Amino acid sequence: MIYFSAVVIPLIISIIVFCGLLENKKVYDLFCDGAKEGIRMTIKMFPTLIGIFLAIGMLRNSGLLDFLSKILSGFLKYLNVPSEIIPLAFIKPISGSASMALATDLITKYGTETRIGMIAATIMAASETTFYVIAVYMNQIKAKKSRNVIIPALIADFVSIITAICIIK
Amino acid sequence: MNYLWPIIIIISFLFAVISGNIQNLNNSIFSSLSDVVKLSLTLVGNMCLWCGIMKIIQETKIMNYLMKILKPILNWLYPEAKNNKDAMEAISINTVSNILGIGNAATPAGLKAMEELQKDNKNKEELSNAMIMLIVLNTTSIQLIPTTVIAIRSALGSPNPSNIIVPIWISTIAGTLTGVIITKILLRRRKI
Question: Among B180, B52, B62, B36, which Cα is nearest to B105's?
Fold first, then answer.
């Protein structure tokens, strides 16, 4: 399986390039032509990234999230939710790099095959960083009104986290 | 975003003052700037790679196969975008990349899809229904091959790194289904 996950990306790239060759396309020219787009897109994303990283960095370092998760974990203990997971559940929709650091921490501390380690890994893989996706996608078209797209997105995150906690015993 | 962003900043500042974390907060401002620069450097490489690969896909028959396979489900998810061929192509690539767990390839395709959808959008200031569905599906991101997490587990010495895969499937599918159903209901009732 480790081999499998290492092989996915090179395999896909090779198949695509091979198909291009079969159809007699100038694959290299096409590739370079497409790659130009990548620069334009990244430049377009840059200001949004600065904006979200600034706000999220401030939020994380203000200690507010830790405070909230401390309050919540008191209640959640009664529902058989391990309190160690709560900060991760909070930060997951907000910051990809922070939640990755936190999850790696949890897995290292409690072990890969423990309940907490398994839940942390599942939460990491089950969804994307919601705020980041919304900000970057909205920025791409300069739309101002989000029509509350965040509501279904956050409900979905919530459900996938709850599912992870419920199925891993 | 125009409300959320200032609220996050102001609340964080106030809380940091109360809880005595102001030094941390100050450091975070400058470290977040350098984080973005670092991220952008890897990002620009990834974006160029996958945009290049995407171009090859679009110019070959692979695109036609993908479109044929995904058509029924995509037409149901994005009814207004049915006739927007460029948008549907980008959405197809985005969907496949998400399923295969190649988040790096999903982003450029998703952004491309947003641009194509915007061309058909009647009110340019507002997200269209198809855009809302696209964003929700990219936040929930159904992932069948969780490459990153498997790599982390094996790096941390798991005897069987991939036995996390079934819980991940259940959880990602539950989240994605919820996202789709709620979005469909909200859009139909014109609640968002």
Answer: B52
